[in-house]
Amino acid sequence: MDKSSALEYINQMFPTEASLSGVEPLMQKIHGEIRRVDASILSAVRQQSNSGTKAKEDLADATRAVEELSYKIQEIKSKAEQSEAMVQEICRDIKKLDFAKKNITTTITALHRLTMLVSAVEQLQVMASKRQYKEAAAQLEAVNQLCNHFEAYRDVPKITELREKLHNIKQILKSHVFSDFSSLGTGKETEETNLLQQLSDSCLVVDALEPSVREELVNNFCSRELTSYEQIFEGAELAKLDKTERRYAWIKRRIRTNEEIWKIFPASWHVPYRLCIQFCKQTRKQVESILVNMKEKPVVAILLLALQRTVEFEKELENKFGGDGPTRDIGDDIEEIGTWENNSQNISKIRKKYEKKFAASQEPGEDVKTGDKDLSVTGAGFNFRGMISSCFEPHLTPYIELEEKTLMDDLEKVVQEETWDIEDGSQNNVLSSSTQLFSNIKKSLKRCSALSKNQTLFNLFKVFQRVLKAYATKLFGKLPKGGTGIVAAATGMDGQIKVSERDERVICYIVNSAEYCHKTSGELAEKVSEIIDQHYADGVDMSEVQDEFSAVITKALVTLVLGIETKFDTEMAVMTRVPWSTLESVGDQSGYVNGINTILSGSIPVLGNLLTPVYFQFFLDKLASSLGPRFYANIFRCKQLSETGAQQMLLDTQAMKTILLEIPSLARQTSTAASYSKFVSREMSRAEALLNFSHRFSGRHFSHPSIFLISLLSSLSLVGRENERKNNNLCFCLFFSLSLFFFYFQFDSTLKIK
């Protein structure tokens, strides 16, 4: 303890003078505790001294034990070395004998195999000279295996001599085989009955030779078979584009005629398959030469017929030789573009489509197993598609021009035949010209996708873009136009659009048709990107076309709003001619309000039935944002306003608000009622605030500047309520100042504010 702690302890033990009597007992207790601690310390010191001595003795014993163990280990190691030396001395002679036995066995085996190799080479030489191909093939396999055992003895003169002799025999066999195969196709196979069997046996010899021999033999055979093809179709008579189909008929007839003869080739050689590859390469070169050297522009019908026959031939080869499996039929997928069917019909159609695809995928496999068992090459992996037809790509510009002309002519025709009306019972309210346009586009896409999926299809897609933009222009031009020019400006008709009930329906049909074209053009782009080669897929985009149709939709809806507004002109004029300053009593809503209600009641149900909820909501928002401020501005065009006039106009304003709020239910589209109601309430609240304020000035007549100031005051009050947090101080000051201004002039009944 420190000094302060000791003092605290003593004061705690002896707090009073009377407690000092316990000092002596406490001192005795403390002395006893000290003696007990000293005894404990002494005992611990003695015990520690004894423990240190014992620890030293234990350490010395452990050290001696380690030394004894190390000595024993060294002794054991020495004895082990002595034993190893003794065993090696004993086994030295046995090891020499073992090596001698192994060398003798290897020598005997090598000599035996050498004898067999020499004998086999001599027999092979005899077989080669007699053209005994079947026996020579088996013998050659045995000789090759024996030669593999002597790879390590290549430098031995005898082995080198045998290898050179074997090489010469292989060359003799190769020359004999090539000589015999040169007679194939010359007619000797019908004269010599055993020639085909001999050639079949020679194929075994070719398999036993190097793989390069087989490649050379097959290439020579294919080149010899196609020699007559080159001679026939390089002539002036058949070297024409309209004779392309005869080329494919020639090779199919050639394969069909020689099918039995070519069975002499092993199936693993894929001879018909290799022949077709070389045929396609030569045909592509010749057809490309014809297309390049044409002096005049090719006839589109002949060009397309040649391309169609080429694509069909490539598909036949693809199916015959098992390329990537059955090709996907894209016709049904293209037909799905722009369909208007319910879910159950879509599910049924999808089920039928995939059942059809499954059945089609099963049929080619059966044909391979039954009809073309020997000629089919399952999993050969060569893609014949585009091998010949791709050379047509740079020369298909006339076809694209013809397709564009056809689509443009069809567009003009369907637009001219368009009635701009929808038959009763139609579910989509889309113009027939739009559906017919996409029907023509789908037909064009099917025709082109069957011929090309590369640059030509991409060029045709550009044509689709131009055709759809032209149709958007046609729709845009059909919209009613407002008055323009000097005369319209002088008569106040600038920007006004007069529309009839039929015009309103036509505008709705244009909106729906533009939306259909917007949606379907996107589907068309997706389908083309799936069909076209991946190299061109990134360039397939319909965003510009969709922007065109979006602009048509916006313009049509704005035109519809302007048309409805134009119908209100008469009623707004009637409102300004009402003698608001001389009204004696407040009655029912005014006649101009009834007129506006009649106009809306006649147009809104039709528009709500024809427009989709999204575009009807857009129309309502535009109408409310236009009619509300227009009604508000029309109040300023009225003459002097009395108290009764202000009450009547307030009643008319509330009636107008009720009419506007009932529009969604009138159109049977209540999904947008909540947001629209807030929009209408906000637009009409300005007029209500203005008229409520003017009603407070009892018996007062206000000129136009006074109404302007009242309007300013009401507007500022609205701004103050809507922007409490941002502009609270500024709006409050303006509101308070103008309130004092009007409060001061309220007492002067003769004052006219100017």
TrEMBL record:
The keyword Zinc-finger is assigned to this record: no
Keyword Coiled coil: yes
Coiled coil: 59-93
GO cellular component: cytosol; GARP complex
Domain Vps53 N-terminal, residue spans: 3-418
Transmembrane segments: 702-720, 727-747
Cited InterPro entries: Vps53, Vps53_N
Keywords: Coiled coil, Membrane, Transmembrane, Transmembrane helix
Name of protein: Vacuolar protein sorting-associated protein 53 A
Gene Ontology biological process terms, A to Z: retrograde transport, endosome to Golgi
